[in-house]
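Duplicate of #3305? Posting structure anyway:
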């Protein structure tokens, strides 16, 4: 089966609940209690999240599961495997490592789930996935899930799935309707000041900020800490212990802000994230969908702000083309004139509209009927 649905709409429950029911109903136990179900995830955070869902959904069932991923010592993971499990949640690298060491056998796998197939491709796991597939019995039921369906994912699934049923709950690469999206045109050098001013607003209670590089994430954390803002960072240079602690602080409210690279665009399921801020726009438009999908989860409302510098205009164009909508433009009172002067193509008379309360100004003229809107008035450079 190939399942496509917006991020935050419950794909994990969609495959876990039937799996738990199947294992419980048929009382399946493999020889030596080797895993009967393998769930493959691209990131440690997503694997841990799936494992947590297994624990909650299967609380009153006699079904054992464990989660294995890199970045931590393997001792406790090996111990869990030796005690016998039914469901194995894993990232590709650590899984192959433990298979090579003889701690895991996939010969009794009945159900194989490939979660976030597009992210697997983005992170270069395609060869590892194929190696794992070759170790799984041919009659295994295979399920792939993703929030987007690119040509690359379609090619991947064509090689993995045999005459799959396609289930698309929502149009692919669309953003959750409950997310209110806005973009601010801000010079790169002014982004930090605009962000700090934005975070002074009390209704930004739990904020996830996405930034392009690990070094910039650390730098931004230092700047926000100096402003008295409780903040943590999560990225690839952090140890697994540090990443787990940062995520825990964010979930429990000890940190109001979490700064992350795209490693956290998927796999973070934190309740009541009020705002997502794209400090840097992603160079892959699909990542925008996953980033802002961290808010407005499970039917809640959310807000997403995106900062767009001059050199990021092509990225914005790609994003709007992908989601098939224009993102509302708002302007910051301190930098609106400077940003407008450095964005010649973005200048238009409608910029003069002001909100009486000051602060951020909203421009809705692009939605005017019969005028062709924003796209007919500018020409953004194409991304190279």
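Output from current build:
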């Amino acid at each position: 089966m190939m399942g496509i649905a917006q991020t935050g709409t419950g794909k994990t429950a969609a495959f876990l609940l039937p799996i738990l029911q199947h294992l419980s109903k048929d009382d399946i136990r493999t020889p030596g209690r080797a895993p009967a179900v393998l769930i493959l995830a691209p990131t440690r955070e997503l694997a841990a999240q799936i494992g947590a869902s297994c624990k909650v959904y299967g609380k009153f069932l006699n079904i054992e599961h464990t989660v294995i991923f890199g970045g931590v010592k393997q001792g406790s993971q090996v111990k869990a495997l030796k005690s016998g499990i039914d469901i194995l949640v894993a990232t590709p690298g650590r899984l192959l490592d433990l298979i090579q060491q003889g701690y895991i056998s996939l010969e009794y796998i009945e159900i194989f789930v490939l979660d976030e197939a597009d992210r697997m491709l983005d992170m270069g796991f395609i060869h590892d996935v194929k190696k794992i597939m070759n170790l799984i019995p041919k009659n295994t039921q295979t399920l792939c899930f993703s929030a987007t369906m690119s040509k690359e994912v379609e090619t991947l699934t064509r090689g993995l799935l045999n005459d799959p049923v396609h289930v698309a709950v929502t149009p692919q690469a669309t953003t959750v309707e409950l997310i209110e999206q806005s973009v601010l045109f801000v010079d790169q050098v002014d982004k930090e000041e605009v962000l700090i001013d934005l975070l002074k607003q009390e209704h930004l209670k739990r904020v996830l900020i996405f930034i392009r590089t690990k070094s910039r994430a650390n730098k931004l954390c230092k700047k926000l800490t100096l402003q008295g803002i409780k903040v943590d960072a999560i990225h690839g240079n952090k140890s697994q212990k540090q990443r787990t602690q940062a995520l825990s602080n964010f979930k429990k409210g000890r940190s109001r802000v979490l700064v992350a690279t795209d490693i956290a665009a998927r796999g973070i399921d934190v309740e009541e994230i009020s705002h997502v801020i794209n400090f840097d726009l992603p160079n892959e438009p699909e990542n925008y969908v996953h980033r802002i999908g961290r808010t407005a989860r499970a039917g809640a409302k959310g807000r997403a702000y995106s900062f767009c510098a001059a050199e990021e205009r092509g990225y914005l164009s790609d994003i709007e083309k992908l989601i098939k909508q224009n993102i509302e433009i708002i302007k910051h009172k301190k930098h609106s004139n400077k940003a407008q002067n450095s964005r010649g193509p973005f200048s238009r008379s409608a910029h003069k509209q002001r909100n009486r309360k000051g602060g951020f100004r909203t421009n809705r003229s692009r939605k005017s009927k019969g005028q062709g809107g924003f796209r007919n008035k500018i020409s953004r450079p194409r991304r190279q």
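Confirmed duplicate; merging threads. The chain has two domains: 2-168, 179-376. The CA atoms of residues 36 and 109 lie 4 Å apart.
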